[in-house]
Write a sequence for this structure.
């Protein structure tokens, strides 16, 4: 039997004493793309942060296995080295550090962890160019400081480029579509589709069905108030688009239906 | 060897003066200073980083003709200071030294090395006068280096005059020994539509006091007084500025940022004075600190003294730890916490060095920064 790439069991997480995730179960097999949809404040981004290892969130119950290893035991950087990648909703700007500098540190940290030889400047730049071309990223952005002065679309595209460069087993995309116009959305979707493979899995968090026209999910989950209230195939996303989240809210914690 | 003429009793009670309350240099009153010492001339070459540029060398306050490259407009005179230095209320002792005078339009950055070295404590001045006449442009990169494990004392007085439409850029770097004292004052007079940019970088020294007195005596002046510091165990920097807007439509910026490790201390006092007639002044002062330990301490004292009614003056000071969100971002890309922290400290400081116009000088300062920065080798490994 294949080991699940990601196996989340009954995860409860809170921030400053407020419980946000109230028992999430989610299993992602290699090659699968799962979409998580839900209204604002339902806990979608919290789930992404908990998977990536943001220490502002306390996991109070439950487990997360990644390829069979206990992810919660690992620091954020170790999770990245093991193969988890989070594309941020709001990628932070870091003035003073060139993107090249930052990416060389990242690529070589991950290679070192995986027992691979670190790349020298020449090989690193070749790799950067190849990956930038593969996701249609303007290579000039790499000469700028990390995300500094990037437009909203450039930031999201740069996240997808970083994912291509770091070659993870699991890509978690936190509202990568937010703030994008239709052309930028297609480019980002195209980048994600190129990275889909039978070994790699994705968790794609989104508000709107629109992204899923371009990145077609294998499964769609509806998250409301810290719980997954319904799961289905891609037709569930269309149903949501039509009926809105209201339909599902009645099935929340206080409902006896 | 002769003992200098400095009267070091002045240091004994200096910290009772409000302007010096965070910077106690009373230890200087107990040191017998000399004014010259033996030194190895080889060391000068290591600081000669731009062979194409003029290079003026002073060791213990004495001009070293044999190691220097003059340019038209550079001159060495005996003397103390001009009139400008008397305008402020600086109490740092001033004295005679070989004084460097720089005038005329200078197409290349002029490098100045002020070296202090000897087996016994040495005190010296190292006075510099920069005068850019109408429309002229002068750029100076000055390094103050104290060598040896000795409490040497620098008291350099730098005077800058920028006449109408003139441009002066001056970088002052304090490097080397972490036992030395540096009590420097910079005096700037600007006339109509002149531009002056100074950058004071403190990486060495036990105790460095960097005073800036600026007088914007013409309309449409533009002034940038910037500073950066990275200090560790038992080091202190005191950046003390007074910027006087005496005429209308002046634009001044003070921007100082630094990182404090171990029990390092920083003091920032920035006074912006706006005279009645100096309408439409736009002045801003900022001091940002990153504190790496519980023992490090940053004190910021922004001060505004405004007598005009149509002005824009702002001040801001931040003291904090490294940004958690930035740490998380780097860690989610596989970079371990230690390396991520180093990268962010470097980023914070390098932003300040990035603005330097002279690439060779910038490279030297980045190198000095990396050798002071815990984990600096990691940053070097990222160079492409």
């Amino acid at each position: 039997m294949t080991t699940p790439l990601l196996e989340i069991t009954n995860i409860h997480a809170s921030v400053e004493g407020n419980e946000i995730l109230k028992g999430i179960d989610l299993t992602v097999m290699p090659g699968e793309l799962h979409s998580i949809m839900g209204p604002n404040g339902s806990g979608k981004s919290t789930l992404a942060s908990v998977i990536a290892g943001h220490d502002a969130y306390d996991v109070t119950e439950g487990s997360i296995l990644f390829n069979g290893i206990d992810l919660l035991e690992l620091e954020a950087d170790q999770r990245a080295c093991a193969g988890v990648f989070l594309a941020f909703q709001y990628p932070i700007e870091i003035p003073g550090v060139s993107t090249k500098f930052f990416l060389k540190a990242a690529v070589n940290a991950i290679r070192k962890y995986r027992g691979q030889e670190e790349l020298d400047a020449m090989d690193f730049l070749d790799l950067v160019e190849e990956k930038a071309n593969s996701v249609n990223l303007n290579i000039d952005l790499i000469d700028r400081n990390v995300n500094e002065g990037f437009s909203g679309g450039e930031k999201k595209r740069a996240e997808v480029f970083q994912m291509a460069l770091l070659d993870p087993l699991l890509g978690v995309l936190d509202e990568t579509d937010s703030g994008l116009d239709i052309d930028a959305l297609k480019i980002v979707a195209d980048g994600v589709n190129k990275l889909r493979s039978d070994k790699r899995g994705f968790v794609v968090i989104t508000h709107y069905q629109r992204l899923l026209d371009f990145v077609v999910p294998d499964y769609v989950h509806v998250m409301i108030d810290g719980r997954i209230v319904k799961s289905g195939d891609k037709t569930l996303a269309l149903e949501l688009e039509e009926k809105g989240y209201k339909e599902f809210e009645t099935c929340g914690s206080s409902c006896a239906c | 060897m002769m003992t200098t003429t400095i009267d070091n009793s002045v240091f004994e009670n200096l910290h009772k003066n409000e302007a010096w309350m965070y910077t106690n240099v009373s230890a200087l009153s107990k040191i017998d200073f000399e004014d010259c010492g033996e030194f190895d001339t080889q060391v000068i070459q290591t600081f000669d980083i731009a062979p194409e540029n003029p290079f003026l060398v002073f060791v213990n306050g004495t001009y070293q003709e044999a190691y220097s490259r003059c340019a038209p407009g550079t001159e060495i005179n005996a003397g103390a200071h001009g009139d400008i230095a008397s305008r402020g209320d600086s109490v740092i002792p001033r004295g005679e030294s070989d004084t460097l005078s720089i005038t005329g339009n200078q197409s290349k950055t002029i490098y100045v090395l002020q070296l202090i070295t000897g087996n016994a404590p040495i005190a010296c001045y190292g006075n510099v006068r920069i005068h850019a006449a109408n429309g002229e442009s002068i750029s100076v990169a000055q390094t103050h280096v104290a060598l040896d494990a000795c409490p040497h004392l620098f008291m350099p007085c730098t005077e800058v005059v920028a006449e109408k439409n003139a441009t002066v850029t001056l970088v002052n770097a304090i490097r080397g020994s972490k036992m030395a004292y540096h009590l420097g004052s910079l005096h700037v007079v600007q006339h109509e539509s002149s531009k002056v940019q100074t950058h004071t970088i403190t990486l060495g020294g036990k105790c460095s006091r960097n005073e800036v007195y600026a007088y914007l005596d013409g309309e449409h002046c533009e002034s940038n007084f910037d500073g950066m510091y990275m200090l560790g165990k038992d080091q202190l920097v005191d950046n003390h500025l007074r910027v006087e807007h005496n005429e209308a439509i002046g634009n001044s910026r003070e921007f100082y940022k630094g990182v404090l490790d171990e029990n390092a201390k920083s003091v920032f006092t920035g006074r912006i004075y706006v005279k009645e007639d100096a309408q439409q002044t736009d002045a801003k002062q900022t001091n940002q600190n990153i504190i790496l330990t519980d023992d490090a301490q940053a004190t910021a004292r922004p001060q505004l003294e405004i007598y005009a009614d149509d002005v824009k003056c702002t001040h801001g000071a931040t003291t904090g730890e490294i940004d958690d969100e930035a740490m998380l971002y780097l860690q989610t890309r596989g970079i371990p916490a230690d390396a991520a922290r180093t990268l962010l400290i470097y980023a914070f400081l390098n932003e300040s060095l990035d603005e330097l116009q002279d690439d060779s000088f910038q490279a030297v300062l980045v190198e000095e920064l990396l050798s002071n920065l815990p984990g600096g080798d990691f940053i070097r490994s990222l160079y492409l």
Q: What stands out?
A: Residues 15 and 21 of chain B are 5 Å apart (CA to CA). The first strand of chain B starts at residue 55 and ends at 59. Helices of chain B lie at 42-46, 84-87, 324-331, 337-353, 359-372, 376-380.
